[in-house]
Amino acid sequence: MAESLGTLILVLCGCGSVAQMELSGFAKAQFLSVNIAFGFAVTAGSYVCAGVSGAHLNPAVSLAMFFYKKITWRLLLVYCLAQFIGALFGAAFVYLLYFDALYAYSGGNWTVYGPQATAGIFASYPSEHLGALNGLSDQVIATATLIICILAINDQDNNPVPQGLQPLVVGIVVLLVGLSMGFNCGYPINPARDLAPRIFTALAGWGLEVFR
In percent, how much of the chain has pLDDT > 90? Predict the structure, then answer.
């Protein structure tokens, strides 16, 4: 429950900032503000559930914790499922919150690509210049950067962050990753945050093109 709620907050606030940017034609938000929003969304989501679940909010983080023997494989599955459910509801709330704006912007034509595309509000899509191999390396490098920093932040033998400030510092790391590695495809370094909203859009009218 805690992981679901924390991930819901992450997706609601993060994807909500993308919706403001896209639907206002960049008048109400910009690339920088979206990255700041995602950073603070991670911080807020982490504060919601850190004391209960440890605030993984990300299957990649949970997998790293499994490899470091911090959680069992059964708990890994529970965490990933909870994160997926939270992200799914977060995407649904963004859809409900901005439904009228989505309709006004696209005329009710939910599209994945093109000048009035709106699927990118919910999930990340590659830039036209990006090939498959470069896309893979982009995600490996960005996700590895996040995981290494999170492990360092929580390492008691490595100048650890004071208790209670970890969510803020992790949010700053996410902001840094976004500002330095977000150009190619929006740094989808969280499988739950990307896959669950992508599935939601497929069901909500964007169709299977969201998986192309």
Answer: 81
Angle CA 184–207–34, to nearest 5: 35
How much is the pLDDT for 108? 87
Q: Distances in Å between the alpha carbon of 72 and those of 37, 66, 119, 190?
A: 32, 6, 35, 20
Query: How is the chain classified by DSSP, letter by letter?
Result: -HHHHHHHHHHHHHHHHHHHHHHTTTSS--HHHHHHHHHHHHHHHHHHHHHHH----SHHHHHHHHHTTSS-HHHHHHHHHHHHHHHHHHHHHHHHHTHHHHHHHHTT---SSSTT--GGGTS----TT--HHHHHHHHHHHHHHHHHHHHHHT-TTS-PPPTT-HHHHHHHHHHHHHHHH-TTT-----HHHHHHHHHHHIIIII-GGGG-
- Range of lowest pLDDT (99-108, 152-161, 169-178, 185-194): 152-161
Looking at per-residue pLDDT, the higher value among 68 and 15 belongs to 15
Give the separation between CA 151 and CA 82, rounded to whole angstroms: 22
